[in-house]
Amino acid sequence: MVLVYGARRPAQIDMAYGDAVTPAPRVGRPSGDAAQHAMHASKAVPTFDQLFEPLPDIYREKLAALGDLKKSLLHQAFSGQL
Questions:
Q1: How does 52-75 read in b/e, with b if 16+ C-beta sit within 10 Å?
Q2: Per-residue pLDDT at 63
């Protein structure tokens, strides 16, 4: 089944049997309690920026920790502690 988008509205065509074009069902906007629930649910989902905003700080901290580990290992290696 393939969706075909024409001038007025999408239609479905069964390619295997060449059946007649049937209109795709329309989906309306929710109203009343459903609309309020959808609006509340959409606000509860974090945005892309909110999800990825702390990443640069996290990676800076990890790089700093790796740098400290490297210095410590080099110090131990050259002082004969390893």
A1: eeeeeeeeeeeeeeeeeeeeeeee
A2: 97
